[in-house]
# Entry
Amino acid sequence: MADPEQDHHHDHDHAEITQGEAPGYFDIMETAVRELLIERKLIRADEIRRQIEVIDSRTPALGAKVVARAWVDPSFKTRLLENGRTACEELGISFYDDTALIVLENTPCVHNLIVCTLCSCYPRPVLGLPPDWYKLKPYRARAVSEPRAVLAEFGTEIPDDVEVRVSDSTAIVRYLVLPMRPDGTDDYDEQQLADLVTRDAMIGVIPVRVEQ
Amino acid sequence: MTDTQHLVSRLPNDIGGLPADPIQRIDHDLEPWEKRCHALADVLDFHKIINTEEKRCGVEALGVEVIGKLSYYERWIVAFANILFRKGILTPTEVALKMNEVEGRWSQAGSGSRELV
# Structure
């Protein structure tokens, strides 16, 4: 199947004033549907504006904060693994959608990987929006059947004696990988630890590494 | 499995486990309308007008050809329109007329900037 997402890159900057450039058909459709719903008083314009701010406020830095806290605070980690959502809420991270969060701990014996084979479900409140590759066919199709090969394409070689577990997200259940704390970080404080944690490590495609 | 059996055993977006190309680690910043479309999805969910599962089914219902040709958020907005039609909240005529109005507004504004929301 041709991959439409890959054809969707433009070399111009849409953030600029769009003088001289007509909005596309689907852009116009979005505006029309939204304005009709606002006119019917089914939704409000300020709700859309507010939600754009919420979307912009969610970045992998939030997930990194959760991971670092779990590394330094064993009782927090216990609560996090018990109920991801309420533990994140302890750190002031709100869940604007109606989803449960299950946190999956990587250990020397188990490596976790998350995917959404049916669409693009993702722990948005703690990681923001998923990268394009997470939404595209190659990752969605192959992560469940050949996870080791997929991981290798991210440069991650998982030893044969380590179990690879793939968790498939749903509309209401989302996952976050709690990566292993890297060696050589005993004297790191919580913020320094958080700075090491990347989005891709919390999806489970790479480990957390101490930068050389 | 025959071709026709394959057509009914899997929905077009149900691709887990199928063979596919190598991962290409591409990503892009959302265009303004894509971000608005995402915010619209969230707000529709908050108001229980269209939830995430309905959106997913709505994308499936577009069929394999449309799913294959439209980009990610193009599928979303078309699915939303179809679901709203099916629920009797909007009609295709209303959306068509509104789209004409939106387009006309932009051409009229000419050198002006485009309103976001």
